From TrEMBL:
Residue ranges the record marks as coiled coil: 206-326
Biased composition range(s): Basic and acidic residues: 534-544
Transmembrane segments: 403-423, 430-449, 455-477
UniProt domain PDZ: residue ranges: 31-93
Protein known as: PDZ domain-containing protein
Spans annotated as Disordered: 515-544
Native organism: Guillardia theta (strain CCMP2712) (Cryptophyte)
InterPro entries tied to this protein: PDZ (IPR001478)
């Protein structure tokens, strides 16, 4: 189609070029003045001369006579078309056949081609008017007016002459331009003809190609029709299958609605259960908070109890100091008595010597008997002192144990409450995250986010929960261990102080008992200074050795207690572990 349109365009251009060439060839000049007002002229053609008889008085600029450039004003016409003429016949001879374009020849062999009167109608009419005026002047014999008319004619002729020269030059340029345009149009026509030929050949080739393509298209159309028929059969088959599937779809929709209602009921029940569990967890958290408050109250109570125990400890210290002063006073008394007994026993030892006189022997025996009688009293005094020391020791141990038991109970309560708090927080976080997980899965299923995104969210939430629980347990254990070490150090320091006070008390009691035994033995020895002999002296020495042995054993026990106290003071608190008892 494009090639055919191009061919038709080339043909139209060639037709336009041919039309323009014909128009240029048909027009001689486009600069010729043409006046349509030629009705008052008696002739159709003119040679453009104004005559005075047979003499040329003036010529119309642009007329045949003027354009011939062979006639001038004042020339006399003798013959027209080889026939003699005079003033009466010259006009008829010049008009001739009165056909524009006809030629007549004068005696001077000038060929004048008559032109249509319309081409120079205005100039001819003007010249005739001047001629008429001049004739009127000649009849009136007004020579001056005739001269004026001649000057007007001359001036008008000069003007027309100048204009004619310009028009002539323009006409020459027009002719040159016309010839150039004709040449260009001819060349353009030749190029268009060659282009048209090539386009026609190309169009014929394309037509052949189009015929081949149309044939292929017809074959494809036949194949397409066969495919469409097959597709139509398939479509009908699919329509039948779609009808069956639509029925199945309706059934599936009904079952989906049932499942959806069941899922909604399940979600509602699950949300209600989760809400109940969250309320229960909230209640448990509130209970744990109450337990924490109770624990704080118990801790404050233990602090107050600790302050009371410290106050009692201060009282015990004061009492121990008082006992110390009393023991020091009794010790000084016992020392004085011991010196007196020694001073009293000096005669006895002098009597026990081998060189003692027989008169003093009965006195020695009496002193030995008195000492033998004083031994049971000394034993009773030792037992009384031991009985007096052992209740105090037990009371000190009981006080230490009573001081340690509340600390141990407080530590156990702190550990239990911390563990309960961590477990409660872990369960609360787990249930809250479970509720969030259910909601996220529900939203994922509703919004169509997919199961993979839900599982990823589950894994992230589980990891966050595990990290939170581990961090909570680590913090709780660190806090509990710190509290444990602090309580252990406090209890250990208090137990060591109590043991030191107990050992000092036992040592003072032992010194007091030993001095008391010496004081009791002294009077008995004084009473028996008179009797006894060598055997009695040996018995007294044996009993004295037994008393010294008992005193040595008591001192050893005191040393062991002091060594234990020093070992407890030197041993670090952290190496003893969580055990909080006394050895």
């Amino acid at each position: 189609m494009a090639a055919m349109a191009e061919v038709s365009w080339y043909q139209q251009v060639m037709l336009k070029c041919e039309e323009m060439r014909k128009r240029l060839e048909s027009e001689d000049s486009v600069l010729t003045d043409v006046s349509k007002d030629s009705k008052h002229f008696t002739t159709k053609s003119t040679v453009g001369m104004m005559l005075n008889g047979c003499s040329i008085e003036s010529m119309v600029v642009g007329g045949p006579a003027f354009n011939s450039h062979m006639l001038e004003r004042g020339d006399t016409i003798i013959e027209v078309d080889e026939r003699p003429v005079d003033a009466n016949t010259i006009l008829d001879a010049l008009v001739g056949s009165d056909v524009p374009g006809s030629v007549h020849t004068g005696s001077i062999q000038v060929s004048l081609q008559r032109m249509a009167s319309e081409q120079i109608a205005d100039r001819r009419h003007m010249l005739e008017l001047f001629t008429l005026c001049k004739e009127k002047c000649s009849h009136l014999k007004d020579q001056e007016f005739s001269t004026i008319i001649d000057e007007c004619i001359s001036l008008w002729t000069d003007m027309l002459l100048a204009e004619s020269e310009g028009m002539e030059r323009a006409s020459c340029s027009y002719q040159i331009l016309k010839s150039d345009c004709l040449v260009l149009l001819q060349e353009l026509s030749d190029h268009l003809a060659s282009a048209l030929t090539s386009c026609q050949s190309e169009l014929s080739w394309k037509q052949k190609m189009m015929e081949n393509l149309e044939e292929a298209a017809r074959q494809k159309e036949v194949q397409q029709r066969a495919k469409e028929e097959e597709a139509e059969r398939e479509r009908r088959k699919l329509q039948e299958e779609n009808a069956a599937m639509s029925v199945e779809l309706e059934d599936l929709r009904s079952t989906a609605k049932k499942y959806q209602s069941a899922v909604q009921n399940f979600e509602h029940r699950a949300i209600q259960s989760v809400m109940k569990e969250s309320k229960m967890l909230q209640n448990e958290i509130d209970n744990l908070r109450d337990l924490g408050k109770n624990l704080n109250e118990e801790i404050s109570f233990l602090k107050r109890r600790n302050e009371e125990l410290e106050y009692e400890n201060k009282g015990l210290h004061i009492e121990v100091r008082r006992h110390k002063t009393e023991l020091e006073a009794s010790k000084s008394q016992y020392v004085d008595l011991h010196e007196k007994i020694c001073f009293a026993l000096e005669p006895i030892y002098s009597q026990c010597c081998p060189d003692a006189s027989p008169e003093r022997k009965p006195n020695l025996e009496e002193m030995i008997v008195g000492l033998q009688q004083a031994v049971p009293a000394l034993r009773r005094a030792c037992d009384e002192l031991r009985n007096d020391v052992s209740p105090r020791t037990r009371r000190s141990e009981e006080n230490v144990t009573e001081r340690l038991v509340p600390c141990q109970l407080a530590l156990v309560l702190v550990l239990v409450l911390e563990l309960l708090l961590v477990l409660g927080l872990g369960l609360g976080l787990g249930l809250v995250l479970g509720l969030g997980l259910v909601l996220v899965l529900g939203l994922g299923l509703v919004l169509g986010l997919g199961l993979v995104l839900g599982l990823l969210l589950v894994l992230v939430l589980v990891l966050v929960l595990v990290l939170g629980l581990v961090l909570g347990l680590v913090l709780a254990l660190s806090y509990c261990l710190d509290m444990l070490f602090r309580l252990q150090a406090c209890c250990h320091q208090r137990g060591l102080a109590s043991l030191e006070h107990l050992c000092l008390f036992l040592e003072q009691s032992h010194d007091a008992s030993s001095s008391h035994n010496h004081q009791r033995e002294a009077p008995a020895a004084v009473g028996q200074a008179g009797g006894g002999g060598e055997s009695d002296r040996k018995k007294l020495e044996e009993r004295q050795a037994k008393l010294e042995q008992e005193n040595w054993e008591l001192r050893e026990e005191v040393r062991e207690l002091q060594g234990y106290i020093k070992a407890m003071q030197e041993s670090p608190v952290k190496k003893q572990g969580p055990a909080l008892g006394l050895a």
